[in-house]
Write a structure and sequence with these properties.
Helix content is 39%, strand content 27%. It is of the alpha+beta class. Strands 1-2-3-6-5 form a 5-stranded mixed beta barrel. Strands 4-8 form a two-stranded antiparallel ribbon. A hairpin with a 5-residue loop joins strand 5 and strand 6. The longest helix is centred in the first third of the chain and has 18 residues.
């Protein structure tokens, strides 16, 4: 009886284990400070994967500091081998993953340098022990990156304002 339970438990955990399997891919594009495109697989059978870095949200490209955030991710990851550990899939179908380039966690790097906010999508940042929140507080206190601005607007608020502005344009 205990062996059946252990077998059932092991089989139920398989999807979680495969989801957390790391893959090494070549970063071939940087969309913004929290999204990249990676080419995974073998020569002749590549798969391009759009990856949203887990636990962070960076300014949009047209938002203040958006281009500088994108450049910071590009300096770390562009045309580098990245270790990508899938955590989830977002509503746009992108892989949400931990990404490591040059041996450094990209999300941690961007938050530490002040180019991204902590974004606790599905509690990923909290489950990591909250270290990203401390790094964000430190970057803010030192006025690094986007924290040098007078009143930085988080991207989720900026996007909401943009959506509301567009919908108000249709009213007139």
């Amino acid at each position: 009886m205990p062996s059946r339970f252990l077998l059932a438990l092991g089989l139920s955990l398989l999807p979680l284990l495969s989801q957390a399997a790391a893959r090494t891919c070549l970063v071939v594009g940087i969309s913004d400070g929290d999204t990249l495109t990676a080419r995974c697989g073998r020569i002749g059978s590549y798969e391009e994967v759009k990856v949203r870095i887990a636990a962070i949200d960076a300014p949009e490209r047209s938002q203040p500091y958006g281009q500088r955030s994108r450049q910071a991710l590009s300096r770390l990851c562009y045309f580098e081998q990245a270790v990508i550990t899938e955590r989830d899939t977002d509503r746009y179908g992108r892989t949400v993953a931990d990404v490591s380039c040059k041996g450094e966690d990209a999300g941690t790097h961007l938050v530490t340098e002040g180019w991204a906010w902590v974004y606790d999508f599905n509690g990923i940042a909290t489950r990591r022990g909250g270290e990203l929140f401390k790094l964000q507080d430190s970057a803010r206190a030192q006025r690094l990156g986007l924290w040098a601005g007078a009143k930085p607007t988080p991207p989720w608020e900026w996007r909401r304002h943009e959506r509301e502005s567009r919908s108000n344009d249709f009213l007139f």
